[in-house]
Each structure stands twice: as structure tokens, then as C-alpha cells.
Amino acid sequence: MDDSVLPSKLLSDLSSAVDIVRRHPFIHIYSHFDADGLTAASIVAKALMREGREFSITIFPTLTDPQMEIIENTEAKCVLVTDLGASYIKRFDRMTCDVVVLDHHTALDHAERICYANPHLYEIDGGKAGCGASMALLFAVTMNEKNWDLSPLAMAGIVGDMQNKDGLKGLNVYICDEAVKRGFVTPMPGSLVPLGNLSTELFMSTSPFIEGVSGNSEGTAKFLEEAGIAPNKDYSNLTPEEHMKLSSLIAIKLINQGTYKESLEKCARPRYYLPAWGTDAASLASVVDSCGRQEEPDVGIAVCLGDSSAMERAKALNAETRKEIMTAALHIAANKDKIIELENVQWYDTTECGNSGAICSIIMDFFGNPHKPTIGVNRSNPIAKVSSRGNDELFNRKNVNLADAMRGSCAAAGGNGGGHREAAGGSFPAEKYEEFLKAVDLIIGEQMKSAGL
Question: Which of 236, 268, 300 is the last residue of a domain?
């Protein structure tokens, strides 16, 4: 698509969504628990608030049959779903209340009755060029142009959904350009050097994970000393020369530890400063995402809606999440043999550490075999949760589609799965994890064979 022009069908569907919502004094919002889902729900909520509408918000860690039944049993006359729903369009169609779905996951069906907007329906890749927060913002500005001031939340959702990893595309370009023009977003050059206090941020860095520095206070101090940089120095106080030297030293360390070129480039992607928030989109996304991961999504929503008192709690949750992820990353670094390679995939048991998506990304980028998708399986509950990650080589050259693989393999184990080609997940009865692994290895193998590999 022309990144400066929105598809006319999308504009028409968004206008219909606004018309439907405006007919109701109360709307029940349902959304996902990650950064994209929480920012999407908050954008919609803020837009409704400004219209004088009442609302409630329910956040789900995933949308499976039990959660869908909760939505179906709502007493609300109008339901608005963000960052969820693509797998259940036929069931939404059978509901008797008004329903608007603003999702970006792989579109399996077209809606017959409800209002359904999804980038995939307009030949836009919802895995790279438009996320839940993107769709929510476009809905909000269709409702009222003044809602462009919510674009920083959309940028946090876009970055939180990793849709900036190889440059913004599609709907995200349009949103960013408009936000920049209005002064709500300021682009920053990409860098391997983390924002904030360098001692703290290098010590806590898992993207990139720098062996001997990440999670190692002595290693961090020694690394900064080698770079000739004071330990209490902040990113904002670096001279151009110091920045260049530190960035080069980080790159050298990553190359020497065998980091895949694509992973190195991903870590140096452009950043987006949000003046009204006093931080960048990635940092805001991290804070909001942690609230959902730590089962306090209401705190994340409160932060997005401007509750300054909620920010301290959100930062504490973020520190806890980052600590958990660092602990898991250090354990993986010391026990790489626990990354189990099957014929076509590699997998890691995240039962003890949780944070399966983040762990999969770290393994994919820094520890594992870059030529095989990474699967994380968490069996801490009777219903196991699974996440998967890959890279551009797998998607573009080897024809890997993780959304299809998760859908098929979770179903083979008696569960449900889906998501994006590049990142997907699902759930199934925990005792059937071996059936799941056998199925996903087979499906990925078949996908690779279709590419002639």
C-alpha cells in the first residue's frame, strides 16, 4: 500500500465502527494483556471517555473458548474487541449485540454481520504493518481528529509488538508520520547503546544480551572502564565520540559471541521519543507490558489513561519482570544444552521461568540455532502455554509460518493456537506436550519442504 494513504475500505469500516459505538451509552471493551493490547484498549477507552460514553475493560491473556464464552454472556449491548478476535469471527457474528472487532492477527474469516477491521482484510500484513494499537488509534481519530494526541500510546503498542524491528511499514508509517507532524513523536536514530543510566541498563540488558556484561555487575563496570566512560554516566550525557566507541565495543562483543547479523541489526533499530511522556516508545511499552505479564493489567491501563500514581507501581512491576527475564537469560547462557533441538525446531522448557515469548526471542537472537524456529513451553498449569519466534531467514527463505504451525500443532494436542507468521502462541493440555512438539516439528518441516529445502 501507499504508506501515505489509507485504503478506502478500511476508512469505510472504521466509520461504520464509530457509528455503531456512538449508538450506545455503554461499551464493554475486551483486549489482550500485552503492551499492544493494553495500549489499544486504553486508546479506545480514552476516545470513548471524550465522547461521554461509559465503558468497562476486561483483559485476557489469550482468547480461547472459555474467554469467548465470557464475551458471549455479556449483558452489554455493544462489545468492542481490540488485539483479539480474528480466530472467533464466526462466533462473534452469531452474537445478538453490536460487535466491533479491531484485530491484526491472521484473518481466517470475513464477518457477515459484525463490524470487523483487520489489516489483513485490506492486503496489509498485520504482523509487520499494523497492530492492535494501530487499529485502535485509527478508530479513535476517525471518531475525532483531536485523538491524535493518543498516538504516543499507539507507538508504544507498535514497538511493543516488535513491528519496528526492520523499519515501520504500512499503517504504522502513516501513524508515525502524522504523529511526528503534530509534535507527539520525535524519531531518534537507532543505537546499540541503551537509554538511561548506562551501568543499570547494560547490567539489565537482554536485547541485546551481552555475555559477560548483562547480569554481571563486575563485567558491566569493567566494560564501561574499557570504553573510558564514567560508571554513573547517562545515555543523554554521552559525547558523540563516547557514543560511537561504546556502540562499537558492544557490536564487537556481540559479533564475537556469535550473534546472528539480523539480531544485531534488530537491536539497533530506530527509537521514538514521546515528549509528553518524557520517555521513548520502547520504555513505555516495556512498563505497560510488565503490568499484563505480572497479572496487574489494570495498572497498565491506568498508566495509559494518565494516572501518574499508577506509574510507580508499573515501574516496580517492570523491574520485577526484567529481573525474572535476566535470571532466565543467565540460566540459559550457562545451560545452553537445555535448548533442545529437534529436526526442524528448537525448544526450551519455560515452566520454571515463565515469560515464554521473551525467552524465545532471547534464545532465537543470542543463544540458539538461528536456522530453526524457537518454541517455549510452559507447563506450570494444567493448560500449557506455548510461544514461538523466528527470524526473516525462516520466514522469507524457508517459508515458515508460525501462526499456521501453532494453530495446527496446538489443535493436534487438543488445544488452540494462532498469531502471526513471525510470532505466535497457543495452549493445550499440559500432559500432551510431547504430542504438541511432535506435531509442530512435523508442520515446520513440511513448511520448509514446500520452499524446496
Answer: 268
- Alpha-carbon distance of 7 to 283, in angstroms, equals 31
pLDDT of residue 1: 45
Structure-model confidence comparison of residues 421 and 23, the more confident one: 23
Hey, what's the cell of 390? 523466528
Strands (E), 339-430: 340-341, 346-349, 374-378, 383-389, 416-419, 423-429
- Cα–Cα nearest to 282, from 197, 155, 410: 155
pTM (two decimals): 0.90
**Structural domain count, the chain:** 3
* Domain boundary residue, one of 188, 211, 239: 188
CATH no. for residue 232?
Answer: 1.10.8
Distance CA 260, CA 186 (A): 29
In a domain? residue 363: yes
Using CB atoms within 10 Å of the CB of residue 169, give its burial: 0 to 12 exposed, 13 to 18 middle, 19+ buried.
Answer: middle
**What confidence tens digit (pLDDT) does each residue in 185-211 have?**
999 988 999 999 999 999 999 999 999
Instruction: State the Cα torsion 193-194-197-200 to the nearest 10°.
Output: -110
Alpha helices in 51-118 (DSSP H): 65-72, 89-94
Same domain, 223 and 175: no
What pLDDT digit, counting tens, does each position of 108-153 carry? 899 999 999 999 999 999 999 999 999 999 999 999 999 999 999 9
